[in-house]
């Protein structure tokens, strides 16, 4: 949780100051607007370097996407059969293999059986569940279509899980090759090169230039490996802290969107994320401005998040989604035009679902193309490095015969 200081105007026009805690600035603004309709300023309260470093999370505390999809599928089936939600929670908790999810469902079942709504029960674990999950359930409860909301979520998380698994599968081979190459290089530098150097030095000969270069590189890494580890750790810390500052987050997000190959993948992913989330929210019964607010909170790229968040006020003023999305700099024209078409035909949720599938496939295609270019590039680089090492090792061996 972050702390934000703010200035705002009450409904009577009185300026007040205060502090609020929230996971992000958008949530903080929503909490403030519940008391004061006009926010004049909102600023994150930053601690010192050490406190920010200690608050930095290591690892992922969220439930796996595949586990969420399975759970939503179980809820949809049991609720359609007429089983009460509290009993369904207990049954699903007993069946799930995810220990964290089992505990959450068991605790939530007790709360729901005590009279609390399902959304409020799950909201106690909002650091574990995505905001899309909680808000869709809330909308399903309000509209009386909780089973349909769980079914929509099942398809949503299932698609996300498939995309994640395909990307991981495509990246597995290049990562494996790179790791093996680094391990082999370390072994050669640490064991083979020093032994060869000692043997050749005892014969009193002069090493060939490629071999001397290899020895120099080996010696450099042997003497300064601790510095390299410190440098990598420092870069990691700076990267994490940079993501906690407003300007840093904007810079990192813009760099991601404007990089030659990765940028197009990021835009396709962001477009799919926007369309799919909006589709699920609208199909679950949320109004357009609330659906947009939830979608802005789940966008991975911060610049796209700011663009979507900027649409909320305009939609509240009565403007259409199609006109608001035109001001978003990075969203592709296809998404903008299809959003307008969906509103004109009265089937915005279905249109966004279709265009979301299109951009999901586009992101997957671009990722595969990028990896297909990465693999031969990586192999060529490894071949050049291996060739240099082989030449550097074998040249002295031929020279040794003349010295013996």
Quick structural overview:
The chain is mainly alpha-helical. It has helices at residues 25-33, 49-55, 65-80, 85-95, 99-113, 118-123, 131-143, 146-202, 209-242, 246-258, 262-283, 288-298, 302-316, 321-325, 333-345, 348-403, and strands spanning 2-9, 15-22, 38-44.
Furnish the topology, listing elements before pairings.
Blueprint (H helix, E strand, L loop, with lengths): L1 E8 L5 E8 L2 H9 L4 E7 L4 H7 L9 H16 L4 H11 L3 H15 L4 H6 L7 H13 L2 H57 L6 H34 L3 H13 L3 H22 L4 H11 L3 H15 L4 H5 L7 H13 L2 H56 L1
Antiparallel strand pairs: 1-2, 1-3
Keywords summarizing the entry:
404 residues; three-stranded antiparallel β-sheet; 16 helices; elongated; single chain
Round the Cα radius of gyration to an integer and report it: 28 Å
Could you give the order of strands across the largest sheet? 2-1-3
- Strand residue content: 5-15%
Largest sheet: 3 strands, antiparallel
Count every beta strand, where a strand is a DSSP E run of 2 or more residues. Answer: 3
Quote the average pLDDT: 80
What is the H/E string? EEHEHHHHHHHHHHHHHHH
Helix content: over 70%
Low-confidence stretches: 47-60
